[in-house]
Design brief:
The protein is α/β, with parallel strands linked by helices and 284 residues long. It has helices spanning 10-31, 51-57, 74-81, 93-106, 120-123, 145-155, 169-174, 226-235; strands at 64-68, 85-90, 110-114, 129-134, 156-167, 199-202, 218-221, 239-246, 248-249, 258-259, 265-266, 277-283.
Length: 284
């Protein structure tokens, strides 16, 4: 089997390999973190979803759902718990192993596949889906959005839909977390638009609590503006159904953020109201 990802420039393949090693190294830290809370049997996997996401997703019982870049499978399990026939796919072997264990402990029947997202069709040759879902913090690890969108379109059966819930490019340009020693001010730290190549991040701590990452600490992120994302989806032949911007996040990115009625977080009224998350629905 020849993987699509083999066709990338060797330098880009090395970057994706670095990301795979980095997510392998992150996995034990994330498993032990309070952020994910997988050791807490009372933790609800649906907490990672906004209320409007469930309204957009609708009834999933008996539906075929594919979760691309699923990491520990915390969101994947929420789909299975709602009765979907669920598949999770991720680049990291350590993440997939952890996701399988967590699903088994929860008594959920989920098929997990280790593969680069660009190779998903080759690793799921007989499967087509009603919903392809990509969750928060995924697109920045993809160097080529048109190839990603073509992969999604191929994996969808006629009438199926892409559900993309992603951090807004503006949030990414403000930085994934406050810089060491910085104050609460909202400062632009990264490009909003893509086109200038990947950003190398080399950090011993991830976005979660917990100890330092042991081993591979380098990862590469690609910036993608909202126009690039929409153009990629339309270019793959999908029909745009909804684009929604939201000022809420599932965790407090800045210390001044306040709780919302659904248990998420937004900036206080004294701060500018800006988009932090967006959801995009597209149909095949």
């Amino acid at each position: 089997m020849t993987d699509v990802s083999d066709g990338f420039d060797p330098a880009v393949r090395r970057m994706m390999s670095s990301n795979e090693a980095n997510w392998d190294a992150r996995t034990p830290v994330h498993l032990a973190s309070r952020f994910y809370g997988v050791a807490d049997e009372s933790a609800d996997p649906e907490r990672w979803f906004a209320d409007h996401e469930w309204r957009d997703l609708g009834d999933l019982a008996g539906r075929d759902v594919l979760h691309l870049q699923c990491h520990l499978g915390t969101e994947t399990m929420a789909f299975a718990a709602r009765g979907a026939r669920t598949v999770g796919l991720d680049l990291s072997g350590a993440s997939i192993a952890a996701a399988r264990t967590l699903a088994a402990e929860a008594g959920l029947d989920i098929a997990y596949v280790q593969a680069n997202v660009y190779d998903a069709v080759q690793h799921l040759p007989e499967r087509r889906f009603d919903v392809v879902y990509t969750g928060k913090g995924a697109l920045c690890y993809l160097p080529d959005l048109p190839r990603w969108a073509e992969t999604v379109a191929t994996l969808l059966r006629p009438g199926g839909r892409l559900h993309l819930a992603e951090f807004h490019p503006l949030l990414n340009s403000l930085g994934p977390s406050p810089a060491p020693g910085s104050g609460p001010e909202l400062l632009l730290r990264n490009d909003y638009l893509g086109g200038r190549g990947p950003v190398l991040r080399d950090a011993t701590h991830t976005y979660t609590d917990g100890p330092a990452v042991q081993g591979a600490t380098e990862c590469y992120e690609w910036m993608h503006g909202l126009d690039e994302i929409v153009d990629a989806v339309l270019g793959a032949g999908l029909r745009l159904g909804r684009l929604r911007e939201s000022d809420e996040l599932p965790w407090p990115r800045w210390p001044q953020m306040v709780r919302t009625p659904q248990g998420w977080w937004r900036l206080p009224d004294s701060e500018p109201r800006i988009p932090l998350l967006f959801t995009l629905i597209a149909h095949r």
